[in-house]
Design a protein that fits this description.
single chain; 638 residues; alpha/beta; Vanadium-containing Chloroperoxidase, domain 1; eight-stranded mixed β-sheet; seven-stranded parallel β-sheet; 19 helices; PAP2/HPO_sf
Length: 638
């Protein structure tokens, strides 16, 4: 029987009948005492409020002050300054709203030049073009094929690769078609266009009900691109394609017919293909969060294809990524799309479950990751992250303060709604804040924070606990509410508290220092350093150790009613190594995995061990535990 003075903050004078001795129950971790916040940039017009201004506008006035897309990308002016928007001869065309004529007349009005403006940062500009020269020189045949397909076929058709084993089911439900599936033998002489329907067929056609399979999902992907044109920015910045800057850029021969003869109608910054890849990719990832990172890795790959093709530069691709992302954030925050988001997500999940035979969301997740790397080139999460890491800033040197604080754009958290559904909107903002890219890189230093967003990393949870974090997961809701994994390396001084019936896995090499409290559900430590450097307090629910065991830097406390689940115990070393003290008020020790009769499994070790487990199980069968002053071992029954 355990006696506790509940009036004290720390329970004292506990008496265990098994040992008839008293000890002090350690205090529960208190953390920092506050939650982290993610600020919105002060005095900066929010893209979600002004996204509709991304139009060519009356008299073609697309500029930093009047167009949200141009303003977002204004950091490019530190690299390149375009000429004035108009010349006298353009007045009549401008009055008639003929933006293409204005841009072409102005740009082409510079005799003998394919560029119209002045380089401001010669070092960054040279690195930008030199990168294209080098990568096109080293381009492989497989990269050439991919670059051609990504250029000529519908962008959403290319994005299907990111769905892996779910791609065929999606194509069927979207009623998607394409007329380009290979590189024609005469592609170096003939320009081929995709006469398919790209995203597929929506729920309505000419006001009549059409696609009842994934029509709403198609509608949402289309809605995500509203007011998303890159043309206003192209017309404003007038930055030439890389092959206009340097003859050493090797444009893909099969794309020579696609080159424009007029620089004025063929701006390089930002990349339109890349922007569309991110618009479609983010919408698709929202609908199929089971493949969130894989889909967005495909978006990165689409941008990279533009460089490999010789059609765009790294800065073009960075600009396209930023603008594409901002456009989706804007559209997904529009009130008129709120119901469509819910309905499209439900339709997408239901369709994919039926097509894969998945009876539960967990089964759908398994089906989404059922193919090996040989069949699904995005099947390796570590490989995806490595690929993306080298293609976010493209190796540019910082050009401004690299220690600038992170700001998160207004509404940016919306794109994590389905991937991290158990977090609040503010918590999702903090996730974006703690996973953001470092500051200071060219173009990526916009005041609102879009350039530093890293949704691929954010899909793996927090990057730091700079405040205390309470995670409440309702397993009854299924999907990621029932089970999720955070693979980031979590730093910070804050504390993690796990609540709710769902299961969360920490798989990173974590160093957060505020401690860990488990009140309900399951927390799995799938890395030896998963639980950081603070105390671990299992007040309820289950703490599970991973295959490689866990090392705790602080103390370990387990209360009556809680469970320690050891996934893989051995006779060689403890599954839970505690550098501090161990206090066991009671609860269950549940050992699972291979166990030879008579074997003595080492479970926990620490500076000291006080108390006893109420129940000890090995693969569901009662077992005996032995307690020393510094360890707990279990003998497997015969």
């Amino acid at each position: 029987m355990l006696l506790r003075n509940l009036g004290l903050s720390t329970a004292l004078g506990l008496l265990l009948t098994s040992g008839a001795f008293a000890y002090d129950l350690p205090a529960r971790p208190t953390g920092l005492g506050f939650a982290d916040e993610a600020p919105i940039a002060a005095d900066v017009p929010a893209y979600v409020d002004f996204g509709a201004t991304n139009q060519r506008g009356q008299a073609c006035m697309s500029d930093v002050d009047g167009n949200a897309g141009v303003r977002l990308l204004a950091g490019f002016l530190d690299v390149w300054t375009p000429s004035t928007p108009f010349v006298d001869a353009d007045v009549e065309a401008a009055a008639e709203g003929d933006c293409a004529a204005v841009a072409k007349a102005d740009w082409d009005g510079v005799p003998g030049s394919d560029t119209d403006g002045a380089v401001v940062d010669a070092t960054t500009h040279k690195a930008n073009i030199d990168y294209v020269i080098e990568i096109t020189r080293l381009r492989t045949q497989s990269e050439a094929v991919q670059a051609y397909l990504d250029d000529r076929r519908g962008k959403n058709v290319s994005m299907m690769d990111g769905l892996g084993p779910l791609s065929d089911a999606w194509r069927a439900g979207a009623w998607q078609s394409s007329t380009i599936s290979y590189v024609p033998a005469d592609a170096d002489a003939v320009k081929y266009d995709d006469n398919g329907n790209n995203r597929g067929v929506g729920s309505l056609v000419d006001g009549e009900e059409a696609n009842g399979d994934l029509g709403l999902a198609v509608d949402l992907i289309v809605a995500a691109s509203a007011d998303g044109s890159t043309e206003p920015a192209k017309r404003y910045f007038k930055y030439a394609r890389p092959w206009r800057w340097a003859m050493d850029v090797s444009v893909l021969p099969t794309l020579e017919p696609a080159k424009s003869g007029s620089p004025g109608t063929d701006g390089g910054f930002p990349s339109g293909h890349t922007a569309e890849a991110w618009r479609d990719g983010l919408a698709l990832a929202y609908l199929v969060p089971e493949r969130y990172q894989e889909i967005l890795t495909r978006s990165v790959e689409m941008g990279d294809s533009r460089i490999l093709a010789g059609m765009h530069s790294p800065l073009d691709v960075i600009g396209g990524r930023m603008l594409g992302t901002a456009v989706v954030v804007y559209n997904f925050n529009r009130p008129e799309n709120a119901q469509l988001k819910q309905d499209a997500y439900a339709q997408a999940q239901g369709w994919l479950m039926r097509q894969t035979g998945a009876a539960t969301p967990a089964a759908l997740f398994a089906a989404a990751h059922a193919a090996p790397v040989a069949e699904d080139r995005f099947a390796d999460p570590a490989a995806n992250l490595a690929y993306v890491a080298s293609r976010t800033s493209y190796g540019f040197a910082p050009v401004s303060d690299s220690a600038a604080p992170v700001v998160v754009p207004k509404g940016a958290e919306v794109l994590l709604e389905t991937r991290l559904p158990y977090l609040s909107a503010e918590q999702r903002r903090v996730v974006l804040k703690t996973t953001a890219w470092p500051a200071g890189y060219p173009v990526m230093n916009d005041a609102e924070g879009f350039g530093r967003l890293d949704y691929i990393k954010a899909a793996d949870g927090y990057g730091a606990f700079d405040g205390d974090v309470v995670v409440t997961m309702d397993g009854a809701l299924g999907g990621f509410n029932a089970s999720d994994s955070w693979r980031n390396d979590i730093a910070g001084k804050g504390m993690l508290t796990k609540q709710g019936s769902g299961s969360l896995t920490l798989a990173g090499n974590n160093s957060y220092a505020g401690g860990t409290v488990i009140e309900a559900g399951r927390l799995t430590a799938d890395n030896s350093a998963a639980l950081g450097s603070g105390d671990v307090y299992v007040a309820g629910g289950t703490l599970a150790t991973g295959q490689d065991g866990v090392v705790l830097k602080g103390n370990y406390t387990q209360l009556e009613g809680a469970t320690l689940l050891v996934i893989a115990a051995t006779t060689d070393s403890a599954a839970l190594v505690v550098e501090g003290n161990i206090v066991i008020e009671g609860g269950t020790l549940d050992v699972q995995g291979p166990a030879t009769a008579g074997a003595v499994l080492q479970i926990v070790s620490g500076q000291s061990v006080t108390g006893r487990f109420t129940q000890v199980l090995v693969n569901g069968q009662p077992a005996e535990a032995s307690y020393t002053g510094t360890a707990v071992n279990v003998t497997v029954g015969g």
